[in-house]
Specification:
- This protein has helices at 16-20, 22-25, 39-49, 56-61, 74-86, 101-114, 128-138, 175-191, 321-332, 340-359, 377-383, and strands spanning 5-10, 29-35, 52-53, 67-70, 90-93, 118-120, 145-153, 194-202, 207-209, 219-221, 227-234, 239-245, 256-260, 264-267, 277-280, 288-290, 363-364.
- It has 386 residues and is an alpha/beta fold.
- It has 2 domains: 5-120, Rossmann fold (3-Layer(aba) Sandwich), CATH 3.40.50; 126-312, Dihydrodipicolinate Reductase, domain 2.
- The chain has a 9-stranded mixed β-sheet. Strands 3-2-1-4-5-6 form a 6-stranded parallel β-sheet, sandwiched between helices.
- It binds nicotinamide-adenine-dinucleotide.
- Nicotinamide-adenine-dinucleotide binds next to helix 5.
C-alpha cells in the first residue's frame, strides 16, 4: 500500500481543476488544503472540492502538509517554491521551474542542501505517447538517430484568451517559455541532454487584437519576438531543428519527426499523454502505427495537428502523474522522473534558445541531466487507483 501524501495547493487558477482530478486517477496523494494570493479564489476552490482554504503563509507553517503543489503563474514559481523548501516541504511546481535560470539553480541547490524533493511539470512525457516512442527508439528499430525536426506553431492565444498581454511581453512572453517545456523535456527524454543551441527570431506583427472577454476588440502592442527557429545539438550529437511560433495561421507538419539510420519516427504531441507513433523503415513511405490507447496513460484526447492544445480537460488528462511519481519516490527514497535537475536543464535550453536567437550568437548549454528512466505500465499501475 502506498502512503497517501497530504498536499497543499497554492495557486487556485485554471489548471487546479486538472490536479484535483488526480484524486480519481492516483492513489498516493490527497490535496487537503488550498491557498491563493487572492483569498476569494482559494475559498471558492475549497468550497468546490470540500477542503480547507488557508492563507499562503499559513500553508507554509502547516505541519500536516508534506508536499506543496505550486500552481501559481510562472513569475511566482520561484518565490513560492523557495518559501516552500524553506519551510521544509517537498515541492512540485507547474512549468517552468522558474522564469530565469539563476532562480532555478538556487531552487535546485536549496532542495539538495535540505534533502527535499523538488519536482516540476511537464509530466506529459510520462504518458503512453512519448513512452511508446521511447521504447521504440531504445529498441533501435530505426537505428541511431542523428537528425530531426519539431514544430509548435499557431496564430497565438489572443483570439481565445481574455488576458493575452503577458504572453507578448518581455521578459516572460513568447512561444519558447510557453510551449518549449513540453518539446524540450520530450526531446531530452528521447535523446538525452542538449549541449548547444543557435537560432533566429522574429516579431511578425507589431500589435494584436483581443478576440474574447471583456477586452474584446482592444488592440495591444507586441513587445517580444513571436517566432523562433532554432537548431539544438544534443550531447549524443543529434541535431534537431525546432520552430516555436505564434505567427502561423495553419500548417500540416508533425509535432516531432526523428530520423534514424534505419528509418524514421513520427512522435505524438508532447503536450498530450496519448497518441500513436508512426514508424517507417522504408523509403517507399509505408508508416506503421503504434497505438497507445491500451496503455495505462495512453488514451487519446486530441486529434488536431501541431497547434495549441484543444484537449478535453475531463478526458485522459493525467497531469499530476509527475507529482504522484515524486511522492512514491519520496516514500521509497528513489530518484523521481520529473526532477528539478531535468527542469533546470530544460530552463537552460529555454534561456539559451532565446538568447542565441535574439543575439545571433550560438549558446552553450551550461547544465546537463540524466535521461529519465523508461516508465513502464507496471510502474504506472502501482500509482493508479484500481
Ligand atoms: N492553463 C493551462 O491550460 C495550463 C496547462 C498546463 C500548465 N499550466 C501552468 O500552470 C500554471 C498556472 O496556470 P493557470 O492557467 O492555472 O494560471 P491562472 O492565472 O489561471 O492561475 C494562477 C493562480 O495563481 C495565483 N497566484 C499568482 N501569484 C501568486 C502568488 N504569489 N501566491 C499565491 N497565489 C498566486 C493567482 O491568483 C491565480 O489564482 C502556470 O505555470 C502554467 O504554465 C497551465
Amino acid at each position: 500500500m502506498n502512503k497517501v501524501f497530504k498536499v497543499g495547493l497554492i495557486g487556485c487558477g485554471h489548471i487546479a481543476e486538472t490536479y484535483f482530478r488526480g484524486h480519481k486517477y492516483f492513489n498516493n496523494f490527497k490535496i487537503v488544503k488550498c491557498a491563493d494570493i487572492n483569498m476569494s479564489s482559494a475559498k471558492s476552490c475549497a468550497e468546490t472540492y470540500n477542503i480547507e482554504a488557508v492563507t499562503v503563509d499559513e500553508m507554509f507553517k502547516d505541519k500536516e502538509i508534506e508536499i506543496i503543489l505550486n500552481l501559481t503563474i510562472p513569475k511566482a514559481h520561484y518565490e513560492i517554491a523557495n518559501k516552500s523548501l524553506d519551510s521544509g516541504k517537498h515541492t512540485y511546481s507547474e512549468k517552468p521551474i522558474a522564469v530565469n535560470f539563476e532562480d532555478g539553480k538556487k531552487l535546485l541547490n536549496k532542495a539538495r542542501g535540505k534533502k527535499l524533493y523538488l519536482g516540476c511539470a511537464p509530466d506529459t512525457f510520462l504518458g503512453g505517447g512519448i513512452q511508446k516512442t521511447r521504447e521504440l527508439i531504445d529498441s533501435k528499430l530505426i537505428g541511431d538517430i542523428k537528425l530531426g525536426n519539431a514544430i509548435f506553431a499557431y496564430p497565438g492565444l489572443q483570439s481565445y484568451h481574455p488576458n493575452p498581454e503577458p504572453h507578448f511581453e518581455s521578459p516572460g512572453g513568447g512561444p519558447v517559455i510557453d510551449m518549449g517545456p513540453y518539446y524540450f523535456t520530450t526531446l531530452v527524454n528521447l535523446l538525452g541532454p542538449a549541449k548547444q543551441v543557435q537560432g533566429r527570431c522574429i516579431k511578425v506583427l507589431e500589435e494584436r487584437e483581443i478576440g474574447t472577454g471583456s477586452k474584446k476588440g482592444k488592440k495591444f502592442k507586441v513587445n517580444c519576438p513571436t517566432t523562433y527557429l532554432a537548431t539544438i545539438q544534443f550531447e549524443n550529437e543529434t541535431i534537431i531543428q525546432i520552430t516555436l511560433s505564434f505567427d502561423v495561421v495553419i500548417h500540416q507538419r508533425n509535432h516531432i519527426e526523428l530520423y534514424g539510420t534505419k528509418g524514421s519516427i513520427i512522435v505524438p504531441d508532447p503536450n498530450m499523454f496519448g497518441g500513436s507513433c508512426f514508424v517507417s523503415e522504408s523509403p517507399e513511405g509505408q508508416w506503421n502505427e503504434h497505438k497507445t490507447d491500451k496503455l495505462e496513460l495512453g488514451k487519446i484526447n486530441i486529434t488536431n495537428q501541431s497547434s495549441r492544445a484543444n484537449e478535453s480537460s475531463t478526458n485522459a488528462n493525467y497531469r499530476g502523474v509527475g507529482l504522484s511519481e515524486m511522492a512514491y519516490c519520496v516514500q521509497k527514497q528513489k530518484e523521481h522522473r520529473c526532477s528539478g535537475e531535468l527542469a533546470l536543464h530544460v530552463l537552460d535550453i529555454i534561456d539559451s534558445t532565446m538568447k542565441a536567437s535574439q543575439t545571433g550568437v550560438p549558446q552553450e548549454i551550461k547544465t546537463t541531466c540524466k535521461k529519465p528512466k523508461f516508465f513502464s505500465d507496471a510502474e504506472v499501475r502501482i500509482l493508479l487507483n484500481s
